[in-house]
Amino acid sequence: MTQQTIGFVGLGVMGRHVARRMVQDAFRVQAYDINPEPLEHLKEIGGIVCTSAAATAVNASHIVIFVVNGKQAEQVIFGPGGLHETAAAGLTIISCVTMLPSEARFIGERCREHGWSFIDAPVSGGEVGAKQGDLTVMASGDKAALDASHALLTQIGTRLKRVGNQPGQGALVKTINQLLCGVHLAAAGEAIAMAQRAGLEPQAVFDVVSQSAAGSWMLSNRGPRMVASAFDTSASAVDIFVKDLGIVMDVARELKFPASLAATALQSFLGASGAGLGLKDDSAVVQYYNGFQRNKE
């Protein structure tokens, strides 16, 4: 049986795990990343190392992109050494990138001009979800392309949600998702920091609120790191939420929508980033509320 050839660009915190699982599930994965380390790891289990994004598209039916933002995605596709140099008509590009809806629409239009299908498919679930294969995928695009790509999309994440028939709609749903994630995380940081300021035992407070009506996934997942001040191992950095909540505010301005809670949460992450915590785990937002005392010690 002939293996399906998949191009893969972006082996970061999440992408490397998705690519690994594809190799293990008998896809022929040819991958590129600017960092050689994850490429070597993928090669060890049977992946194919490429020296450019363009090389990943040779004989591939699909390209999966896991980069940081819309500008990087556009460069991967249309920039020097990009997919456009080798991609044949009929290629399907699956973008798992968190970007502005307008960026996803624009990239989708350019791809259509080249005879490619573009599926806007941002994901949620973080590194743990990527490792376990249970990411939530918010996919939008042409129905025929979505139907033909169903098996690959469910390989990326078992919770596949088809949210629209045009690129940009997936990005809009991810924007709403990140609004909630950012607000929940900032609120968790505020609560833990207030408990610390009041002289309470943070662990005891966390044990109560995480199991009460005040609980949330973000509190349960990030709260233990806040309590332990364990920010050095980053599953998702503070600066990621600076970016994502910035997208929320850009969309809110476009819609003339008063996203006041998201705006406040963004200030919290900006404050933490400005204090030098931008590359720390996003749970370090708690330091914004307690005056960064632990960070200075």
Helix tally equals: 15
Q: Strand pairing plus helix content: what structural class?
A: alpha/beta
Supply the CATH superfamily name of the largest domain: NAD(P)-binding Rossmann-like Domain
Order of strands across the widest beta sheet?
3-2-1-4-5-6
Explain the overall architecture.
InterPro entries: 6-PGluconate_DH-like_C_sf, 6PGD_dom2, 6PGDH_NADP-bd, HIBADH-like_NADP-bd, HIBADH-related, NAD(P)-bd_dom_sf. It comes from Pollutimonas harenae. Residues 5-161 form the 6-phosphogluconate dehydrogenase NADP-binding domain. With 297 residues, the protein is of the alpha/beta class. The protein folds into two domains: 5-166, Rossmann fold; 173-296, N-(1-d-carboxylethyl)-l-norvaline Dehydrogenase, domain 2 (Orthogonal Bundle). It is built from 15 helices and nine strands. The strands form two sheets. The chain has a six-stranded parallel β-sheet, sandwiched between helices. Strands 7-8-9 form a three-stranded mixed β-sheet. Helix 4 (70-78) links the parallel strand 4 and strand 5 (92-95). Helix 1 (15-24) packs parallel to helix 6, helix 9 crosses helix 11 and helix 9 (169-197) crosses helix 13 (260-277). The protein is globular. It starts with a strand and ends with a helix.
Please specify the SSE layout and strand pairing.
Layout lengths: L4 E5 L5 H10 L3 E5 L3 H9 L3 E2 L3 H4 L5 E4 L4 H9 L13 E4 L5 H13 L3 E4 L2 E2 L1 H7 L3 E5 L2 H6 L1 H7 L2 E6 L4 H29 L4 H8 L7 H12 L9 H18 L4 H18 L8 H4 L3 H4 L1
Helix pairs in contact: 1-6, 9-11, 9-12, 9-13, 12-13
